[in-house]
Design a protein that fits this description.
Layout lengths: L1 H11 L1 H17 L2 H16 L2 H55 L6 H12 L2 H22 L1 H48 L1 H4 L5 H53 L9 H22 L1 H16 L5 H4 L11 E10 L2 E11 L4 E5 L6 H9 L6 E6 L2 E2 L5 H4 L3 E4 L8 E2 H6 L6 H10 L3 H5 L8 E2 L8 H13 L5 E5 L7 H17 L3 E5 L3 H6 L2 E6 L2 E7 H13 L1
Parallel strand pairs: 3-10, 3-11, 6-9, 9-10
Antiparallel strand pairs: 1-2, 1-4, 4-5, 7-8, 11-12
Helix pairs in contact: 1-4, 2-4, 2-6, 3-4, 3-10, 4-5, 5-11, 6-7, 6-10, 7-9, 7-10, 9-10
Amino acid sequence: MIFEKIKKIFVSNKSLVRVIYLQTIVVGLFSLAPIIYMRDVYGPIISAESIHNLFYATFALLVALVCQSLVSVLRRRTLFAASVILEQAVLSDVLRLSYQYASETGRLISTPLNDFQAVKKFLSSQPMMALLDLPMSILFIVIVFFIHPFMGWITLLGVVLTALVSFTTERKVAPLMKQVYADMSKNGQFLSDLYYCAKEIRPNVPFETLAARSERDQSNSQSLLLRASDVQASGITLVKFVSTVQGSVMLGLGAALMIASVLHPALGAYLIIAKILGGFASRPIIQLLSSWKSLNDTYEAISRLRTFDEYSIEQKFQKGLPKPDGLLTFQNVNLVRNNVRILTNISLTVKKGQLLTVVGPPGSGKSTLLKLATGLLAPTSGEVQLSSIRASKWDPNESCHYIGYVSQNPTIFDGNVLQNIARFSEVNDTRISYLVKKLNLDRIIGKLENGIHTALSPEVPILSIGEQQKLCIARALYTSPRYLILDEPDSALDSQNKKILIDLIVELMREGETTILVASHSSDFIRISEWLMVLQGGSILGYGRTPAVIQKLQEDGKK
């Protein structure tokens, strides 16, 4: 689990944590140098009228300040080193988790990778420095108590008031910012969908209508952000007011103590020292209040990382499994998502070399059934097995070598044509040549500027939907998969290319090494398919050998 692994890394690197705390203490102690210098200069040095002592004290102060700066730099570098150690230990798992989360949910917003990067960045940030400096505030308050208890209580009261104002401000700001982030995310997704579907939207919806909606959403977000900023600015102003009043009261109290002969007039310099220490004590709290957005973002990221722990890579998948024999079975499979029943009591068996065609109206569950067969989805109940192995439990890094899958919407990877066919793996020139010739891809490749090495992008398509579909079919067949799973593979193909695909499927059936599962409305697939399944409303309306199923449906239609 990612969050648990992060905690273990810090536990196993206690020495590094100790170094960071030691550096923090040293930085805090060196910050007392100007105060000690002030006490000595306006005390014994001026009394002794010694230029030499003043020179030595000033030199010692400069050395202390240089050392403080150097240790501060070292502390930041140590924190950065800690973030690098964290990245080296966890990044690989986070990347796989992000990939898995996106493939299972279809959501790219707030992925584990983004959250991990936010936590990593925070480790060497200024708010992190302020958090480390908080314990030193206690030391400064104790020193003020030694100067005089009354001053100590005033300093403590100022720190408590500062913390109270910070806490209250954060409580007011947090829900506003949460809504701002939600609205901005929603509007960002709207704009992304708008650009992605621009070709379809442009002929149907006026741009002004869409722009007005986006501007309205942006205006609402800006209004909330303005309210949050006002609350935050008020909090910072109040904190500064408390700090100023605290310092002034301490000076006034010190003067009163000297007038009352409780504090010797010769110790007047200690009033200034107590005031400065009071400022030191409240400074980390003020810095944290000023960095509320960074703190809130990191807290939200950590909270989300906790929820992602359920996607444990080590526990979820089985590795090192034997090569499948081609058997595909569904045993009483049910699937419910978001309280909606999608598939009900699905049972089927497809043996090696067989073709099962799944038909049914839109929304009947055909695409979902195919995703269950690939392991992309796991059933709510029942079993989906590839050679007696649960499909959803098979490590996708291994199962992808035995599965060829074409989704309902052609998916082009960000790479060249060759990489798209070869799945970014080692290129088998013989296999590439066979697929290019078999699927008549040479005509597509021939018109591209750099041929098979032409760069493709899902954002800027240079191929038609039909050409993309043929490329996806070639990719699915590249590894000579044991299971070929095709979702409407001919929906964008012309009659010539449909025939090429059908001939290829027939050839695979004749070879008898590939189990084929197809969702299609095409009569061509029904014609060549020995087995047929009809879905309606997520349930099986008919299943068996194709002629028997067609006959039964025809008889039921006459009743």
